[in-house]
Structures are given as C-alpha cells and as structure tokens.
Amino acid sequence: MDFIKPSLGTLTNSFQIRSNPKHFGIDLALPGNVSVKASAAGTVTRSYVSDSYGEVIFILHDINGQPYETVYAHMRKGSRKYQAGDTVKQGQVIGYMGSTGDATGQHLHFELHRGRWNGTKSNVVNPLDYIGDIPESVKETKQIIILPAEAESWRVYPLDKQPIKGNEAGYLNPKKFGGLQYNIVGTPGQDIYTIVTSDFGKVNIYGARSTGARIFNAS
Ligand SMILES: [Zn+2]
C-alpha cells in the first residue's frame, strides 16, 4: 500500500466535502498514549503550531512521480518529532495523538491531498480510498478497559497483592468522571488487568464482565 493508517483509533468523523459543514480529512480517536505515524515515506514540509490544526506536521510524498501531501493535526503539545526538511519513512512515529488547536477531545485529524496542500484544499481526497492496513512491523495491539459512568467507585490493588477486599490501594471514581478508560498494560490473571492511573500509578483492577467493566481491542 502506498499509504497506511497513520494511527490506531476508531473513525469518529468521516471525510465530507459535498455539503456543509465540510470535513477535509478523517478523525481517528483513541485515549492514552497513541503514536502518530507517517502514512508514507516523504519529506516534512511544515511542522508548527496552528490555531486550528494545533500541533501539526505536513509531509510531502512522491508516489511514482505524483506528489501527495499529508497533514497530521491536533497532536499532543510538544510531541512533534520532526521539522521542515526532515525525511521520514513510512510508519515512522512523528508524534502523539492529542487535542491541541481546534479540537474537542483527543483525536488525530488526518488529511490527504493529491498534489500540494493549499488554502482552499482543492486537492483534498478521501484518505480512506488510499489507506491500507498498518504493516505488521508497525502494528500495535492494544486493549482498553472501560469503567462505566454508572459505577460509583472501583477498587484498585497493588501489583504484589491479591485483588481481594482488604488489599485495596485506593479507589477510582468512574461516576465522577462520566466513566473512565485505561490502556491495559498487563493481564496477570483471569479477569485481572494492570492499568496505569494518575493517582495510584501502576495497579491491578478486577474486571470480570459481571463487574460492568468492558474490554475493547483498540486496533
Ligand atoms: Zn477532523
């Protein structure tokens, strides 16, 4: 494939230029640390902070003599790894998904232009017509655990203790936050998941289906 999906995530907003409001790219959303990858090999043409795009990188590609330009917007503050003039390989991590600029919630806004990007976006095309699967070499399999908003509190346990009542390291409050979700970084036992929380660090959580917790594949 000439172009690959630039990040993991679910498609939360499609390409749409036939009616208003227009959307000149696709949005891919996923919580946590989500790397953003060059969709094809090329040369960085712009890397800056825009009011609307936020932290953004533009990459110019040459596909059999045809120039294309891709745009990776709303990346996490300070996460841009390359500057104009740098060359990147396909699948190379160029930054991390964020919500900088004109964005509500963490996502990657990705544009593909057949020809150069321009202010009227006259060369824009639907990325989904060009994107193949992420090559095996850059594929990451991730699972996330979602603690629903209905849950009042959720026990978390130190990694070195059995996840049973009395061993709690603390409590999470999904209700307070309208639900919580974490990347699963380990599965030390049946229905036991290791997550990293801001309050308690790396802890285990009991997430059997009967608890209301839900496990999703993030890719
Ligand atoms: Zn968008």
From TrEMBL:
Organism superkingdom: Bacteria
Any Pfam family the entry gives: Peptidase_M23
SUPFAM superfamilies for this protein: Duplicated hybrid motif
Cited InterPro entries: Cell_wall_metabolism_enzyme, Dup_hybrid_motif, M23ase_b-sheet_dom
Domain annotation M23ase beta-sheet core: ranges: 22-118
GO molecular function: metalloendopeptidase activity
Protein name: M23ase beta-sheet core domain-containing protein
Upper classification of the organism: Bacteria, Bacillati, Bacillota, Bacilli, Bacillales
